[in-house]
Design goal:
The chain is of the alpha/beta class. It has 16 helices and 12 strands. The longest helix is centred in the last third of the chain and has 32 residues. Bound molecules: flavin mononucleotide (FMN).
């Protein structure tokens, strides 16, 4: 077993252990992948201020997200097909998050259902909703999330139509995989994945199969999205969904100041500044570059969360210092899951917490909730003069 010290170590192991089509599904952006690449490379442009001779004892990464206590302000982002990276992946990730004391978000497009995850955990989790055309299905899934005790609804706004990801089309991505010759050859080297997958019954979209009517081929994400997702989603519909849900609402996929203001107007509890990890509008600016302007515009009116591009505790610190109250990680924990199941997710969280804590200390700070721009050195043109 290699010595794991970074998120990148987990990524290498994930690549070796999970079928190529699922690793590629996670490790890709849309079209040229420019936004996907810049989500991470722009973090590297921000530097840290080294401070010395400052008391660094009694440090804490504890904070709150939407009023919930968290051991660090890092939630696990909703990730479709998580249960294809490792058998029962959503249950494993939710358990790791619960033990660590951070929120877990279950995707609409998960393999394990809402009820499955609720049955195998005790902490309330967040449920992510994609708005579908079938209103009855939406009413029903909201009722299911309420019944399962979900403590927030994360409404994703940046994927009513799928950004084209070339690798998924070339690999013929389906859940479960179809047995083609290239897939069989690949699976022959992924025996651990195959063995675990044989032990579970959870191999298709658990929130959808048996719940949605007139559903064609659910195994293909792209055709299903095209058929079922509601292209007419607008702020009026968001307001109605807020009423239906009646609990904490997080609007995910905000990358523009005007949309952030609309989110405030609709009365959401939080927004997630995000470009879906570079998987949707290729050519959009990185999420970290957009964060300061959005915080400046609405940061005093709504809780601002951030995701897209976080691969270390240092990245978490940078996002918090730029004004996010909390962040979500997607691939960083998916690499852990694909590498080592539940233990891998725990390892990813441990790596991030340790990096966050040590970086805080070396920047002369002891409390994660007091991080501000003062700990950073940001290039003057970082946000850029885009017109
Ligand atoms: C493989 C994969 C699947 C995803 N599926 C969903 C999803 O079902 N719902 C959703 O709101 N976001 C989804 N996302 C986006 C994540 O929630 C999150 O915004 C993104 O991963 C953040 O970027 P990062 O991976 O660089 O941390 C997905 C991301 C990945 C990588």
């Amino acid at each position: 077993m290699p010595v794991i010290t970074t998120i990148d170590d987990l990524k290498q192991l994930h690549k070796r252990r999970a079928p190529k089509m699922f690793y590629d599904y996670a490790e890709s952006g849309s079209w040229t992948e420019q936004t996907f690449r810049e989500n991470t490379s722009d973090f590297a442009q921000i530097r840290l201020r080294q401070r010395v001779a400052v008391d660094m004892s009694d440090r804490t990464t504890k904070s709150q997200m939407i009023g919930q206590d968290v051991s660090m302000p890092v939630a696990l982002a909703p990730v479709g097909l998580t249960g294809m990276q490792s058998a029962d992946g959503e249950i494993k990730a939710a358990r790791a998050a619960e033990k660590f004391g951070v929120p877990y978000t279950l995707s609409t497009m998960s393999i394990c259902s809402i009820e499955d995850v609720a049955k195998h955990t005790t902490a309330p989790f967040w449920f992510q909703l994609y708005v579908m055309r079938d209103e009855e299905f939406i009413d029903n899934i909201i009722a299911r999330a309420k019944k399962a005790g979900c403590s927030a609804l994360v409404l994703t706004l940046d994927l009513q139509i799928l950004g084209q990801r070339h690798k998924d089309l070339k690999n013929g991505l389906t859940a479960p995989p179809k047995f083609t010759i290239p897939t069989m050859i690949d699976l022959a080297t992924k025996w651990r994945w195959g063995y675990e997958m044989m032990q579970t019954k959870r191999r298709s979209f658990g929130n959808i199969v048996g719940h949605a009517k007139n559903v064609g081929d659910t195994s293909s994400l792209s055709s299903w999205t095209a058929e079922q997702f509601e292209p007419k989603l607008d702020w009026g519909m968001i307001a109605r969904l807020k009423e239906k849900w009646g609990g904490k609402l997080i609007l995910k996929g905000i990358l523009d100041v005007e949309d952030a203001k609309n989110a405030v107007a609709v009365g959401a509890d939080a927004i997630t500044v995000s470009n879906h990890g570079g998987r949707q509008l290729d050519g959009a600016l990185s999420a970290i570059r957009m964060l300061p302007a959005i915080v400046a515009a609405v940061g005093d009116q709504i809780e601002v969360h951030f995701d897209s591009g976080i691969r270390s505790g240092q990245d978490v610190l940078k996002a918090l210092a730029l004004g996010a109250k909390g962040v979500m990680i997607g691939r960083a924990y998916i690499y852990g899951l694909g590498a080592m199941g539940e233990q891998g997710v725990t390892t990813a969280l441990q790596i991030i917490q340790k990096e966050l804590d040590t970086t805080m200390a070396l920047c002369g700070r002891r409390d994660v909730t007091t991080l501000d721009r003062d700990v950073l050195l940001v290039p003057q043109d970082f946000e850029g003069a885009w017109v």
